[in-house]
Amino acid sequence: MNPILEAVLKSAAVLVVALTGFAYMTWIERKFIGRLQARIGPNRAGPFGLLQPVADGLKLIFKESITPANVDVLVYFLAPIVAVVPALVLFAVIPFGSDPTFQLASGINVGALYVMAVIGVGIYGMILAGWASNNKYALLGGLRASAQVISYELGLGLAVLSVIMMASSASLNDIVAYQQPGNILGWLIFRQPVAAAIFAVTALAELARAPFDLVEAEQELTAGFMTEYGGMKFALFYMSEYVKMIAMSALFVTFFLGGWSGPFVNEAPALSLVYFTVKVLVCLLVMVWVRATLPRIRYDKLMAFGWKVLLPVGLLNVVITAFLIAAGVPGYK
Amino acid sequence: MLDKFVAVVTKIPVGFATVLKTLFRKPVTIQYPEQQKPMSARFRGRHHLKRYDDGLEKCIGCALCAAACPADAIYVEAAENTNEQRYSPGERYAKTYEINMLRCIFCGYCEDACPTNAIVLEPIEFPTGYTRESMIYTKDMLLEAPPAGVPATPQQTPPGKYDRAILPFPPITD
């Protein structure tokens, strides 16, 4: 098959899956958090409320598109797009399955670096939206977002660095291969538990999800940088948040949970897709569980936690990992 | 520092476990329009104007309910009964009887004030509407249908039978 056509088709498939995943993630989250709070959750639109995302989408599409007075029009309209694109582009390097047909560009040797770079670009959407909205809540939300995301990116980078050191490759394919597919103890979460914990915490902060959702703390900032956005523009921010959530879960699975690996993958490559999906789903449900459990952290504590706890622990972890690798401790090569 | 760390490590899992336990609990949600909470028999819902078994209205248009109403939600206009056009026992009946459901606070004082037990707040049917006008309930909305096989009001009645609005107590004998 023509390689360009193949790439286009695969990208389209990934986009469709990611956007459907986004739509149904909202349903899963509302349903699951409902049950965690002894409620039922949405159940009116279709069986088990399965058409709820459709109803929400239709409602948002038909809402009037309002541009508030004195906004920076170009930036105001650009910001939701700037927020969505990096979230979707993240999927490019994630190996969804063992077969090359289940991968887009996961073989590139700077995969992990690419992930960090794209996550970094993702902040611009929030900052630009906060700045362009001509609203003090939006501005404060945008500033909080930038400070939070930049602070926690350091911890995230250090966690990924430990993984790269272990696998001695930044290619996501190599990282999955390094985790000895088929043997659960090969998963890096068992050999790098500190890095996994730091990655999990910083990922939540990067996603601005509870308990780190100060960016859109509704009690203080109405909706943060999204305050002045309605209809489809709001839907785009919402989409970027959930797509990023799925992407981050996929990255956690790839880095620490052995990616697509599982029993009988060599006999039936399609199984690897199933394993990957199940693992990602578990991560997503854990995120919802965290949201249902933990209250929002105070802003100064958030910054203190990022700089005074996660960063030193991450650095220490990198040093110890380097020492273990250099000393040739079994399990660390 | 260390005791803080220990507290975090030991207590946060307890919180997570508590939340997860809720997952296996029956949801407390009541699916409202289909399922409804059983209501107290004395629940004060919307007002009904009652009739006697012979079809005559209990309301005699005395407007004591309107006087008792703390929200000033009731408006009554009385008119004279005749034996040819009889609505209620006694001299007068309510020609107009309106309750503004938006003003009503469902305190039940009208029920207490009524000398003939004509107005009753029943635990069925809640006043709802889309406009303010539709929330003013008129007499024909409030009045019960007559019992089966009994003619509606006005009725033609024999003279002398319904001279009193309220029957006198039976004479006290010892």
In short:
Helix content of chain A is 67%, strand content 0%. Chain A has 12 helices and no strands.
Mind explaining what this structure looks like?
- The complex is a heterodimer of chains A (333) and B (174).
- With 333 residues, chain A is mainly alpha-helical.
- Chain A has helices at residues 3-36, 52-61, 73-89, 111-132, 136-167, 172-178, 188-191, 193-206, 218-221, 231-256, 270-293, 299-327.
- In chain A, helix 8 runs antiparallel to helix 10 (231-256).
- The longest helix of chain A has 34 residues, at 3-36.
- The two termini of chain A are 40 Å apart.
- Chain B is of the alpha+beta class and 174 residues long.
- Chain B has a domain at 47-142: 2-Layer Sandwich (Alpha-Beta Plaits).
- Helix content of chain B is 21%, strand content 14%.
- Chain B has helices at 2-23, 64-68, 109-113, 139-142, and strands at residues 47-49, 74-80, 92-100, 119-121, 136-137.
- The chains are: A mainly alpha (333), B alpha+beta (174).
- Chains A and B meet through helix 1 and helix 11 of A and helix 1 of B.
The amount of beta strand of chain B, in percent, is: 5-15%
CATH A-level architecture of the domain at 47-142 in chain B = 2-Layer Sandwich
- Work out the number of β strands of chain B: 5
**H/I helix tally of chain A:** 12
As a percent range, the share of helical residues of chain A equals 55-70%
Q: Uncertain spans of chain A, ≥5 residues at pLDDT below 50?
A: none
CATH domain class of the domain at 47-142 in chain B = Alpha Beta
Uncertain runs of chain B: none
Number of domains of chain A: 1
Termini separation of chain A (Å)?
Answer: 40 Å
Series of secondary-structure elements of chain B, N-terminal to C-terminal: HEHEEHEEH
Q: Tell me the Rg of chain B in angstroms.
A: 27 Å
* Rg of chain A (C-alpha, Å): 20 Å
Residue share in β-strands of chain A: under 5%
Total number of helices of chain B: 4
Find the biggest chain interface.
Answer: A-B, 13 and 14 residues
Which structural class do the helices and strands of chain A define?
A: mainly alpha
Largest sheet of chain B: 3 strands, antiparallel
Give helix and strand order of chain A, one letter per element, not per position. HHHHHHHHHHHH
Shape designation of chain A: globular
